[in-house]
Write a structure and sequence with these properties.
The protein has 84 residues and is mainly alpha-helical. 64% of the residues lie in helices and 12% in strands.
Length: 84
């Protein structure tokens, strides 16, 4: 992640990009550890002025379902059945 930030910062400047970390939330101790690491990383990135956002695929699909089920019901059903 640091390598990506350094490359983006060099190419675009600190205000020229936003970094999204999109990930699957897992169960158990390993999932909890990963979530904790992401929260720590997010705090560090924001303290350094990096526009960093993280979101799980589960959160993304849930938000898409809330916002677009009416217009794209078949696709939303596919996403939720396959990935949630």
């Amino acid at each position: 992640m640091i390598k990506h930030v350094l490359g983006l910062k060099k190419e675009c400047g600190i205000d020229g990009f936003r970094l999204l970390y999109l990930w699957y939330d897992g169960f158990g101790e390993e999932g909890a550890k990963h979530r904790s690491e992401i929260e720590d990383l997010s705090k560090t990135m924001k303290a350094d002025g990096v526009k960093f956002h993280s979101m799980t695929y589960q959160e993304l699909i849930t938000q898409l379902a809330c916002d677009y089920r009416k217009e794209h019901g078949a696709y939303i059903n596919y996403l939720t059945e396959r990935y949630l």
